[in-house]
């Protein structure tokens, strides 16, 4: 197994199923659609390539969409369900309402997939493939996506509010939140590296740039230019202002330099147990790429609990 960072690839042959919930629901497989929809990966890649070329930020948004789906009752596309007069889902939960986007890209992919292979490929698998392609199209690693998920017929706004770590989370609470999903502190730190791309709203980092001590003074001054002490809550700033649209290890270099944007980012390098790993990732892009890809596969193995009603949705926004 070898890797090259930048615009090249990290190809990883990884475990078919890495978490107990996956075993309980039946093994996922990279060849799940080999006979029933062999062109699905090509379709997803094609739509994602156009979306990212049009707006690089969409790549980061797709990674976030996958994370926010998997952390709430497993990778089951529950986050894609629209609210109805009788149903309240996850889209408008606190952690999602102003930070998760890209639903229309999933809709576009689903339409193409349905035209090619009707009622065959789940929305959950489309999100998993799209997030892999998002990383790679921004210059990061690639990996073999395990497929065979089903779409939940339910969603839980309360679970989204309870399970998704906030921008002010401490290192200890981050470790605990990921441990609850079977993910190690190392995997948590690697997955946090997704913040090497994307943007955050002023509301979520204002306190850090005005009140925290563990911040580079020049960086804080730069961020204050677009994030005033009052107003401007929706103003955006890149997590990584050095290479904002490149999936690289600059996030960790920024943490070492006290240039983490969110309080929860800088918590990973703040005199705690993750400092050594952050230093390693900051100096070894290949190590980060490999660990990130493995952790994405493992997170993708989080599936709904046994007994959850599932299906292959024909429209990702509503149950059949």
Keywords:
320 residues, mainly alpha, Peroxidase, domain 1, Peroxidase, domain 2, two-stranded antiparallel ribbon
Portion in strands: under 5%
Main sheet summary: 2 strands, antiparallel
What fraction, in percent, of the residue positions are helical? Answer: 40-55%
CATH class of the largest domain: Mainly Alpha
DSSP E strands, number: 4
Number of helices: 15
Give the oligomeric state. single chain
Query: So, CATH architecture of the largest domain?
Result: Orthogonal Bundle
User: What would you report as the Rg, rounded to the nearest angstrom?
Assistant: 19 Å
- Classification by helices and strands: mainly alpha
Please report the distance between the alpha carbons of the first and last residues: 42 Å
Give the overall shape. Answer: globular
Count of the domains: 2
Question: How does this model look, in words?
Answer:
Keywords: Calcium, Disulfide bond, Glycoprotein, Heme, Hydrogen peroxide, Iron, Metal-binding, Oxidoreductase, Peroxidase, Pyrrolidone carboxylic acid, Signal. Belongs to the peroxidase family. Ascorbate peroxidase subfamily. This protein is mainly alpha-helical. It has two domains: 22-164 and 299-311, Orthogonal Bundle (Peroxidase, domain 1); 187-288, Peroxidase, domain 2. Helix content is 46%, strand content 3%. The chain is built from 15 helices and four strands. It has helices at 20-25, 40-54, 57-70, 94-97, 103-116, 123-137, 157-163, 171-179, 185-192, 202-211, 217-224, 250-256, 263-266, 275-283, 285-300, and strands spanning 151-152, 199-201, 236-238, 310-311. The strands form two sheets. A two-stranded antiparallel ribbon has the order 1-4. A two-stranded antiparallel ribbon has the order 2-3. Helix 14 (275-283) packs across helix 15 (285-300).
């Amino acid at each position: 197994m070898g890797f090259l960072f930048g615009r090249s690839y990290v190809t990883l042959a990884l475990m078919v199923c890495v978490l107990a919930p996956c075993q309980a629901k039946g093994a996922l497989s990279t060849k799940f659609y080999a006979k029933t929809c062999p062109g699905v990966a090509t379709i997803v890649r094609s739509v994602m390539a156009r979306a990212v070329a049009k707006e690089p930020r969409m790549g980061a948004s797709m990674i976030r969409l996958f994370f926010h789906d998997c952390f709430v009752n497993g990778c089951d596309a529950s986050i894609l369900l629209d609210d109805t007069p009788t149903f309240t889902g996850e889209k408008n939960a606190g952690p999602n309402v102003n930070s998760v986007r890209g639903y229309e890209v999933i809709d576009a992919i689903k339409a193409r997939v349905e035209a090619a292979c009707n009622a065959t490929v789940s929305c959950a698998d489309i999100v998993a493939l799209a997030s892999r392609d998002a990383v790679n199209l921004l210059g990061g690693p690639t990996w073999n996506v395990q497929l065979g998920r089903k779409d939940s017929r339910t969603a839980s706004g309360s679970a989204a509010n309870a399970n998704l770590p906030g921008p002010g989370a401490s290192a200890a609470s981050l470790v605990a939140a990921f441990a609850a999903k079977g993910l190690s502190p190392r995997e948590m730190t690697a997955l946090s590296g997704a913040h090497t791309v994307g943007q955050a709203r002023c509301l979520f980092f204002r306190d850090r740039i005005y009140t925290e001590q563990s911040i580079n003074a020049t960086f804080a001054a730069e961020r204050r230019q677009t994030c005033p002490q009052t107003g401007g809550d929706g103003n955006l700033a890149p997590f990584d202002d050095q290479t904002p649209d490149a999936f690289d290890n600059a996030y960790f270099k920024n943490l070492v330099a006290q240039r983490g944007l969110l309080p929860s980012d800088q918590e990973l390098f703040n005199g705690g147990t993750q400092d050594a790993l952050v230093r390693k990732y900051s100096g070894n892009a290949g190590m980060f790429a490999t660990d990130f890809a493995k952790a994405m596969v493992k997170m993708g193995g989080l599936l709904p609990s046994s007994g959850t009603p599932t299906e292959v949705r024909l429209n990702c926004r509503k149950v059949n």
